[in-house]
Amino acid sequence: MAPVDATTEQIPVRVFGGPTALIEYGGLRLLSDPTFDGTGHYPTPGGPTLTKTAPSPVEPGDLGPVDAVLLSHDEHPDNLDRSGRALLADVPLTLTTRGGAARLGGTARGLAPWESVRLDRPDGGTVTVTAAPALHGPEGAEPISGEVIGFLLTSDDLPTVYVSGDNASLDLVGEIADRFGPVDTAVLFAGAPRIQPLFDGALLVLDGAGAAEAAGILGARRVVPAHCDSWAHFTETREDLVAAFEAAGVADRLQLD
Keywords, A to Z (predicted)? Predict the structure, then answer.
């Protein structure tokens, strides 16, 4: 099969605040980390209370049919809130961590890093979804922050899409690039979230500078930023991310609308 011309192929991606993005890929509609609750204070199990500062611009019912949810992890309300949990009951498949699938039940299926599943495309082909490794904080964070994955979307006639999930590790981005790079479209979670005194205030997800570096490591033609607004523990705004990409000389890769 002839190689895909990634300079002309465009994969529609729409971000709805926080980590929630709708990706249309091979005729499938894939939704990342659904969060639709209003502003307010949301406790985490055994952890800090997180404050949502802006509502979602859409309601779940506005989305239309969703073929699968790509859920980086289920433990934190800024990645899966009450409205998002309710949505899962109406979605044919939720791909998430193995632990998350056990907790969620229903149509949730757990994937370990580098494990793949094939989804049937409406045109008769398939899309392969591969779980990408992710680290939600500094080295050794897993016992506190939990298990997290990202996702890689591939198909024979389509460019590669990477959805980072809540990842703070550029070393893992390098591993992903070694296996799948260059990627065409990277949906990068950023926002530089920090929670004092957790991990002495270390980054829980990439900041703008880290996202710009990740774009270079991945060789990404297009970067769609997510997870950089709507929560008080995000210490950088979307404007900060744009400034970081401008400083790195890669602002032309950003898709901001």
Answer: Hydrolase
Boundaries of domain holding 88: 13-250
Is residue 98 one of the residues assigned to a domain?
A: yes
* Full-model pTM: 0.95
Instruction: Yes or no: say if 211 and 41 are a contact pair by the CB < 8 Å rule.
Output: no
Rounded distance between C-alpha atoms, residue 56 and residue 36, angstroms? 5
Summarised one tens digit per residue, pLDDT across range 176-200 is 999 999 999 999 999 999 988 888 8
Q: Would residue 256 count as lying in a domain?
A: no
Euclidean distance between CA atoms 226 and 191, whole angstroms = 8
Q: 189 pairs with which residues across the strands?
A: 226
Whether 9 has a pLDDT exceeding 80, the answer reads: no
Give every CB contact of residue 215 below 8 A, 6+ residues apart in sequence: 186, 188, 223, 245, 250, 253
Q: Compute φ and ψ for 210, nearest 5 degrees.
A: -65, -40
The rounded distance, in Å, linking the Cα atoms of 115 and 241 is 31
The number of folded domains in the chain is 1
Q: Beta 21-25 vs 13-15: how paired, if at all?
A: antiparallel
The answer as to whether 6 is a domain residue is: no
pLDDT one-digit tens code per residue, 201-213: 899 999 999 999 9
Mean pLDDT of the chain: 94
Largest CA distance in the chain: 53
Enclosing H/E stretch for 103: helix 98-104
Give domain status of residue 4, yes or no.
no
- Contact predicate 149/69, CB 8 Å: no
Which CATH number covers residue 36?
Answer: 3.60.15.10
As given in the structure block, the two tokens for residue 76 are 């934190």
